[in-house]
Amino acid sequence: MKRLMIASILSLFPLPASAQVYTLPAVTVMADKVSQKEEETFQAHQVITRRDMEQMGASNVTEALAMAEGLDMASGSQDSQTVMGSRQLMIRGMNTNQTLVLVDGHRLADEDTASSQNMTLLDRLSLSDVEDIEVIRGPAGARYGSDAMGGVIRIRTRKPGSGDSLAGFRLGSGENTAYFRMNPMKEGRFHLAIDGRVTKERARTFDRDSMSRGIHYEGKEVPSYGIRRYAGLDGLYDFQNAVHGSLRWQAHYYEEDQSMRFSDGSMNFLGRQLVLQKGERSRTSRKLWDTSLTYEGGTNRNEYSGQVYYSRLKKYGETWNGRPDIGNQMAGISLPRPIPLALIASQLSSLFKTYDYDSAFYERWGMDVKDTMTFRDHELTFWGEWNKDIYRGTRLSLAEDDEKREAGHERKNGALYGADTWKLNSRLTFAPSLRLEKGDTYGLTFIPSAGLALAVNPHLQVKVNYGKGFRAPSISEMYIHLTHMGVRVDGNPDLNPETSRNLDAGLEWQDGRNSGSLYWFDQKVKDLIDYEESSFDRTRYQYVNRKRAELKGVEGNIRHALSEKWTIEGSYTYLDGRDISGDSRLSNRSRHTLKAGLSYDSGSSYGVTGSIWSTFKKDFRFDEKDYTWNELNLSLQKHWGKAYTLTLGLYNLANRRIDALYVPGREWFTGLEYHW
């Protein structure tokens, strides 16, 4: 109850709201015939290609990930004004801040609390700029370091010079979008691509009638809606030399202006109903700048790369509450004890302010170098990286009065990584790796992992993986000093990193028209960071390492080509996620998830493509209740040569609506895209 109370208090602080991969002994085979090194694909994973995204009629990155196996993108709860309606990214049930998102190998600046990290990050990307998305399931701490405890979402963008320029629009009941990408065909050594996107997300209204912390909330709620804008510039210089070297520079800008509206709230105080929240609304702006410079080259034996990048996010949010004066509402009340009414009214006014604001500025600097050497039976990879995070905002100020000030902190870390893909014989491959990382907020950390793959025959492979993961405490968790709603939350600079141990074993097969995989996984997590109430002051809390969790389950997928035109695929995940410290189920997670899809491709440049897919969730735990529902979706594309494509579709055909989970019911969309 204490954790729920403090989480709820923090949430009221104003903030902004496929083709399966089948791994063979040497390479990974994907629908677009691209090969990847075994060192990068040894874990259970899936790649969503551009063809998959187009057949689904996806308009943004979140929609493109709808069929990703083992990935749950649950919405923020009605009790959380921080993330209301935003999407979590949970792989195999791990928390959203335990999933690492990489864009072309580097991280983006983002908010850094458990209730905000990754929640809006995918909204800042343009889907027309994305080549494919890889979802790695299970901890990848040895390879990628902090935040990769649950897994990694690797987004690769399209390189300049492909000659695929396009423009289009999308209309729908959920959002309207217009976009373009100018990417001329390669000529000479220098290639340049420019793209842009504007999205207007429509307001969706949900009913609420519930009790939370003794407060009755009733009325309409509107999660985040508003305008998003994106612009990108991507340049590639091909040296056209013996080492096949290239230099790529990228620069992206994103901004959004989002609003939210909340239901009214009241509480019973000695027989009188006090209005604490009325007509409350918020507005949040975010601006992101991101740039990177990457060099890639290689010889017959070596493939090497290096990059430097910089990313910054600026956020400002305001909240207005139209409640009546609490002192006037309490006039004439007789207290059973001699406590001044003015004091109680002041405390409630602090809990439910008529106006509040928050500002934050996040920066991320990084660089890394990598070299992969191929020998007869070994593939050795060496990697070094350095990162620096800076956060400045009103939440870090130590001010004791009501006047807000800004303060800032930073953290740095460096790491070395080594891995070997060792072919012991024609059937058996062993892949050990080790990461050594040192941060200025934590000591030297060793993160090992190892995998073993046995090719039973040309069609069947057995895999066993062991890996560790960790997540370094964020700047907020170490240094926050938040006085709000009658309580104070303090950071703890002595926090230990969260750590995890994962073991999984599985089968992967591919035989003609049939392919699939089956995995069992068990992941234990300790030193989870949570809040703890002060022993001498019940209004003060501090971050501590105190929780443990275990997530185990089974996941499988199957894909079958019914014919040259029809393909059916599906995946199932059973997840048992438990808070060991409190002996309870972890919330915002489904025990059973079934995803199934049927796709069609006429094979003609003037034909029709499309897909129908379904997501079924059973025993989704939220607010101590279990929900079960199914969403059925349809998307069709009509092509006129290589130039024009018309898309029509429906989400949630059965119109299954769940207000508490922000499932909006049936939505339609249509769009037209032109290629030249």
Offer a quick outline of the entry.
With 676 residues, the protein is mainly β. The protein is 7% helix and 58% strand.
Characterise the protein shown here.
The protein has 676 residues and is mainly β. The protein has eight helices and 38 strands. It has a 22-stranded antiparallel β-barrel. The protein has a four-stranded mixed sheet with strand order 3-7-8-6. A two-stranded antiparallel sheet has the order 1-2. β34 and β35 (644-651) form a beta hairpin. It is globular. Mean pLDDT is 88; it is low at 1-40.
Give the helices and strands, then pairings:
Elements: H1 2-11, E1 22-23, E2 28-29, H2 38-41, E3 45-49, H3 50-56, H4 61-64, E4 71-72, E5 90-91, E6 99-103, E7 130-137, H5 141-144, E8 151-157, E9 166-172, E10 175-182, E11 190-201, E12 206-212, E13 215-238, E14 246-261, E15 264-269, E16 272-277, E17 281-298, E18 302-320, H6 326-329, H7 341-351, E19 355-374, E20 378-393, E21 407-423, E22 428-439, E23 442-457, E24 460-471, H8 475-479, E25 481-484, E26 487-490, E27 498-511, E28 514-533, E29 540-561, E30 566-579, E31 584-585, E32 589-601, E33 608-622, E34 625-640, E35 644-651, E36 657-658, E37 663-664, E38 667-675
Parallel strand pairs: 6-8, 26-29
Antiparallel strand pairs: 1-2, 3-7, 4-5, 7-8, 9-10, 9-38, 10-11, 11-13, 12-13, 13-14, 13-15, 14-17, 15-16, 17-18, 18-19, 19-20, 20-21, 21-22, 22-23, 23-24, 24-27, 25-26, 27-28, 28-29, 29-30, 30-31, 30-32, 32-33, 33-34, 34-35, 35-38, 36-37
